[in-house]
Amino acid sequence: MGLLSKIGKNKEIIKNRTYKYLMPPLGYYGGKFIAKIKSLKILAFAIGDRDLDNSFIKDRECIYILYDEAYRPRITKGILDWLYNQDYFIEETYFTDHNSSLRYLIIEFPFERAIKNFVRGKYSCMYSKEDVEIYFSKNNSTEAYKVFTKDREMVEKHIKRVNDLYKTNVSSSEIDLEKFECDFKPDLRDEVFNLEN
Predict the structure, then answer these.
(1) 105 forms bridges with which residues in the sheet?
(2) Phi, psi of 18 (to 5 degrees)
(3) Other Cβ atoms closer than 10 A to 28
(4) Residues 109, 62: contact at Cβ < 8 Å?
(5) DSSP 8-state secondary structure symbol assigned to residue 193
(6) Which residue in 99, 95, 123 sits closest to 111, CA to CA?
(7) pLDDT at 105
(8) pLDDT (tens digit, 9 = 90+) per residue, 149-193?
């Protein structure tokens, strides 16, 4: 099952791992950016689209923001006019075809190698400790914060998930915590548009 199949009739935002681990650091671009993005009807965040010619992106790591332009069209147009003039704005394009109200914003991600580490499931290598504190510690009980900091409770929770999934009985004393991550590697079908298989 792919990312698109999760968009329901009510068009609620999909809270995938991209949303959980990559969306908060977009705050790097400032409060005005966050306020404008929150005014859009966002349906999903992703790290790419298999069907889109990505040659214009080159070597940049990007976030794809799927939104519905039919939601408050005048406000949406004002937001887009502002975004077009931002250095981190890369592209805005139709999601599927010109008859759909769904569109993408493609934004350059502000942290180098974060997306590459995300794809590899190396969550603890995505950001510096300082960046984790800035973008994820407002509520340091959040799961993402605990994953990045390898919080003891999160380590135990993930070991239990691994044991349950693979029918094993590994304890935390048997694990090299330097190499251990507190979440599974992302299923790219949930993080990249049009990647169904």
Answers:
(1) 65, 92
(2) -60, -45
(3) 15
(4) yes
(5) B
(6) 123
(7) 94
(8) 999 999 999 999 999 999 999 998 898 989 999 999 999 999 998
Side chain identity at residue 3, one-letter code: L
Q: Which residues pair with 103 in a beta bridge?
A: 67, 94
Domain boundary, last residue among 110, 141, 173? 110
Identity (one letter) of the amino acid at 55?
Answer: S
Q: Do 23 and 71 belong together in one domain? A: yes
Residue 194 covered by a domain: no
Residue 42: inside a domain: yes
Parent domain of 61: 1-110
Is the Cβ–Cβ distance between 67 and 102 less than 8 Å? Answer: yes
Q: Which residues pair with 102 in a beta bridge?
A: 68
Phi, psi (rounded to 5 degrees) for 36: -70, -45
- CB proximity list for 181: less than 8 A, separation 6 or greater: 121, 122, 123, 124, 147, 158
Question: Token digits for 75?
Answer: 């406000």
DSSP 69-101: TTSSHHHHHHHHHHHTTSTTEEEEEESS-TT-S
| CA atoms in the 13 A half-sphere facing the CB of 147 | 21
* Number of structural domains found in the chain: 2
The dihedrals phi and psi of 161, each to the nearest 5 degrees, come to: -60, -45
pLDDT digits (tens, 9 = 90+) for 52-67: 777 667 778 999 999 9
Residue that terminates a domain, selected from 87, 110, 133: 110
CB atoms within 10 A of CB 21: 25
